[in-house]
């Protein structure tokens, strides 16, 4: 006589998939020192883009620097993955917000730090939720020519900025004051390209 024992595995307990917060390393994979002028500058992405410093602005920290393309880019092309990011210790002028939480801010640790804001940007910073390996700066729908300014719309990532400013981007649809997405309508955000998921979520809860 054969006794058949059916080993029945316990039924899996149905649980909602946990929403894992993205935890970024405190240190950048490659150490990054912010350059302040052409003398100390070494491009982090040679052949792709570089920082132009306006030396006439005087010594010290200058707001007249900008990032320009080293070659032509097609619409939607990846400019660079955010692969040297680290956790921002605090929200700052230099940090980029990637989630709805109070600590969800990163430092780029690359020349992308020099991407200025524009209300008619040429670049989108795409931060799909919980997929930090896919976070990137990519060229917007108009493409970019070699030598063209690389800019992004700061409220596409920033909800309530550490330092708001008066915009002088010169775009026809310039918003004037830039303080973050909290102070704009969804329509104003969508008119200017990509709106990241965390900004949409915060907007929906406002
Ligand atoms: Zn503007």
Automatic annotation (TrEMBL):
Superkingdom of origin: Eukaryota
GO molecular function, one term: methyltransferase activity
Keyword Methyltransferase: yes
Keywords noted in UniProt: Methyltransferase, Transferase
Domain Post-SET: 163-179
Organism: Vanrija pseudolonga
Cross-referenced PROSITE patterns: POST_SET (PS50868)
Protein name: Post-SET domain-containing protein
Family matches, as InterPro entries: Flavunoidine_N-MTase, Post-SET_dom, SET_dom_sf
GO BP of this protein: methylation
């Amino acid at each position: 006589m054969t006794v058949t024992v059916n080993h029945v595995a316990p039924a899996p307990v149905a649980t909602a998939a946990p929403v894992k917060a993205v935890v970024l390393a405190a240190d950048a994979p490659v150490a990054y020192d912010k350059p302040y002028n052409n003398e100390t500058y070494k491009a982090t992405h040679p052949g792709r883009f570089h920082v132009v410093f306006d030396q006439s602005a005087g010594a010290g920290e200058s707001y007249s620097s900008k990032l320009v393309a080293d070659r032509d880019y097609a619409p939607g092309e990846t400019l660079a993955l955010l692969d040297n990011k680290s956790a921002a210790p605090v929200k700052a002028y230099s940090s980029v917000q990637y989630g709805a939480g109070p600590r969800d801010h990163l430092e780029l640790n690359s020349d992308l730090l020099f991407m200025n804001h524009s209300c008619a940007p040429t670049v989108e910073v795409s931060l799909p939720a919980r997929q930090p390996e896919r976070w990137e700066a990519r060229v917007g729908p108009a493409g970019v020519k070699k030598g063209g300014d690389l800019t992004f719309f700061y409220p596409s990532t920033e909800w309530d900025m550490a330092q708001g400013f008066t915009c002088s981007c010169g775009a026809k649809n310039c918003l004037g004051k830039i303080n973050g997405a909290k102070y704009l309508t969804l329509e104003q955000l969508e008119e200017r390209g990509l709106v990241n998921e965390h900004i949409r979520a915060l907007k929906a809860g406002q």
